[in-house]
Design goal:
By secondary structure, the chain is mainly β. The chain has one domain (5-240): Clam (outer membrane lipoprotein receptor (LolB), chain A). Helices cover 15% and strands 49% of the residues. It has helices spanning 5-15, 36-46, 50-54, 121-130; strands at 58-68, 72-81, 85-92, 96-102, 107-111, 115-118, 145-154, 157-166, 169-177, 183-192, 195-209, 212-222, 225-236. Strands 6-5-4-3-2-1-13-12-11-10-9-8-7 form a 13-stranded antiparallel β-sheet, with helices on one face. β2 (72-81) and β3 form a beta hairpin.
Length: 249
């Protein structure tokens, strides 16, 4: 689970007023680098295996949100349904409710700052890709190819740096912890009518839930703001009402 790319972009514009690009590190030491397929296979094993992950058809994640150094806090709920529906609701004290929904074919956002907005073009393509339920355990569902660039430090530990390519969309850079195999950082570029912004996401505190591992902390870095999500509850294969994906009337 990760914070929706549009919400990252919107909060960056609202709270910082500008998009400052952060340069992703380029490959460091390159001795005996494994193939991308080996790195990805180790990651899938680390989160419980493909079979254990693929058996679930829905997931509802709830928890707390905090924006630093702004001192703004709130709650979030993300409902995801296979194959490609996602509904994120975030309530921020003093700001209001942010809704972000992809129903498989269309995608829209509704918030107290910009109101209702439907996506189109590459922004829609990116949101549909992000909403893929299987992308957490089947990276080939989200990306077309991978290239191992080297090894860098993330949080003091070595991580393989893998460039993940997408057709018609910006590449993502994914960092896999060398020891554990888990994803510990993802650099991406979010697309919106306001422009593009580079973001960094740092999942951590992986815990086992129903036989698979899920990060219970996600720190997302955007210009001048960090968004901290702390998961409190994860439910699998619960019924998710169609109302969660319905547009406002």
């Amino acid at each position: 689970m990760k914070l929706n790319k549009y919400l990252l972009m919107l909060l960056a514009l609202v709270f910082s007023g500008s998009a400052v690009a952060q340069k992703a590190g380029e490959g460091g030491a390159k001795p005996s680098l494994p193939a991308a397929s080996e790195i990805i296979a180790k990651y899938v094993t680390a989160i419980g295996g493909r079979e254990a992950n693929a058996k679930f058809k829905s997931r509802v994640t709830t928890g707390k949100a905090a924006l630093s150094p702004l001192g703004i806090s709130g709650t979030f709920e993300q409902a995801a349904v296979s194959p490609n529906r996602s509904a994120l609701r975030m309530e921020l004290a003093g700001v209001g409710q942010f809704l972000d929904v992809t129903d498989g074919g269309t995608s829209w956002a509704n918030d107290p700052i910009q109101g209702f907005r439907q996506r189109a073009g590459k922004e829609l393509d990116q949101q549909k890709n992000t909403a893929l339920f299987a992308r957490t355990y089947d990276l080939n569902a989200a990306y077309t190819s991978f290239e191992v660039k080297g090894i860098e430090k993330v949080g003091g530990s070595d991580a393989y740096v893998v460039i993940a390519k997408q057709t018609g969309l910006p590449d993502d850079t994914i960092y896999f912890d060398v020891a554990s195999g888990l994803i510990v950082r993802t650099d991406s570029i979010s697309i919106s009518p306001q422009g593009e912004i580079k973001t960094q996401s740092f999942p951590s505190d992986y815990r086992e839930v129903d036989g698979i591992k899920i990060p219970f902390k996600i720190r997302s870095v955007i210009p001048n703001v960090e968004i901290h999500l702390t998961v409190e509850k994860v439910e699998h294969d619960v019924t998710v009402s169609d109302e969660k994906f319905a547009r406002p009337k």
